Structure formats: C-alpha cells, structure tokens
Amino acid sequence: GAGVSQSPSNKVTEKGKDVELRCDPISGHTALYWYRQRLGQGLEFLIYFQGNSAPDKSGLPSDRFSAERTGESVSTLTIQRTQQEDSAVYLCASTLYTGDWGYTFGSGTRLTVV
Amino acid sequence: TQLLEQSPQFLSIQEGENLTVYCNSSSVFSSLQWYRQEPGEGPVLLVTVVTGGEVKKLKRLTFQFGDARKDSSLHITAAQPGDTGLYLCAGFGTGGSYIPTFGRGTSLIVHP
Q1: B92 reaches A (C-beta below 8 A)
Q2: Which domain holds residue A12?
Q3: CB distance from B2 to chain A under 8 Å?
Q4: For residue B7, how many other CB atoms are within 10 A of its CB?
Q5: Cα–Cα distance between B5 and A65 in angstroms, integer?
Q6: Nearest-angstrom CA–CA distance, A61 and A68
Q7: How many domains does chain A have?
Q8: Of residues A40, A98, A106, nearest to B104 (C-beta)
Q9: Residue B23 burial by Cβ neighbours in a 10 Å radius (0-12, 13-18, 19+)
Q10: CATH 2.60.40.10 fits domain B5-111
Q11: pLDDT tens, position by position, for chain A (114 residues)?
Q12: Other beta carbons less than 10 A from residue A68's beta carbon
C-alpha cells in the first residue's frame, strides 16, 4: 500500500483480556518496527523484524507481549492478560531495509484498558 | 542507555513568532532525526542529519546537528498554526545501531 496501515485505530478492552493489533507495512519494505507511546513519553521500542531473520525482541516489556510477522507482510502484536499500564498508542513503522533511515509510521492503535 | 532530553517540554506562541527547540544528550549519535506528530497520527519524518555541524533547511524550518554530534536544534521562523504538533528527535547510536532512541518531544501550539 501507499502507507503503513494499522488496525484497529482504537481499542477499548477489559483488564485481563487479550488483544491483537495489526500492522500492514509499505509494500516492499523488509524491515518492520513496533513502538509504544505512553502519554507524555517518547516512543519506546518493542520489537523489530527484518525479512525472514529472527526478530529483535529486546524491547518487549514482559512475556505477555508477543509479535509475529510472516515474511515481509503483515505483522500482529498480541498482548495477553492486558493490564491498565498497557494503555498507550502502539505505533508500527517500516523501512525499505535495515539501516534505511526513512522510517514511515502508521497512525497507531490507541489501546485503552479499563 | 542513550537518553535524549528535549526542551522545552511545552511551547505556546502566537502566529509569526520565531522559536527554537532543543535535543540534548551526553552520548554521541551517528545520525539524528526530527519528526512532527499531529494528534491521532504517527510521527512524520522531517529531516535526518548525519554530519557534525550540519545545517539543513526545510522551508521555514532550520535543523542543526551539533559539532560533537551530541545535540541538535530545530528553529522555526514565522511560525504558523499548521506548525502545531509534537516535535520528536531520535538518535541512532554509533556502531551500526538501527533502532533509534526517541526523546519525549516538545509540544508546540501556534495560536492564530
């Protein structure tokens, strides 16, 4: 597609439920990144995918967080047993290749845990 | 951990005024980026600076990378309401890092 597409744009969930967030990167972009943006905070790196290589999961805050990506297509970020501190905007970005500085971000998914 | 401190945190000005926002660190970065983020949207890349002392201009916006590559500034001339947004800086560490560190941002409001 022309840009990075994320869905849903907003998600309200009850504490303890699982949620799945989706990111569709720009066609042809091999690198995909997930970030979390809490209110008043900078972007916090979560996980990075490059083609079929093993993902860099060093930013995932707990084992409740996981992400998958099949090849160079769609990625899903799953948060299990959501907690109120998980409330944030989850942003996805893609680049043509690792080391390309031309990050393109999606509009994000605003997650609210009640 | 490389930290980027942005200042001021908030800025509210009138249309036509000039302003400068800062991004500072004790760490050296191989390159540094500036983004603008509007409410409900993702950050949009404005510029990447890679050489110490480099100055880049984008219409009314002037970006400077410090000589030691530890800091950067963004200057806006004759601000307009359309400049309103959150300005984020992001730095790539030395050693081939591909994951940038983001500052918390400067929230700018330009009143008509």
Answers
A1: yes
A2: 5-100
A3: no
A4: 14
A5: 28
A6: 16
A7: 1
A8: A40
A9: buried
A10: yes
A11: 579 999 999 999 999 999 999 999 999 999 999 999 998 888 999 999 998 888 999 999 999 999 999 878 899 999 999 999 999 999 999 998 877 788 999 999 999 999
A12: 13
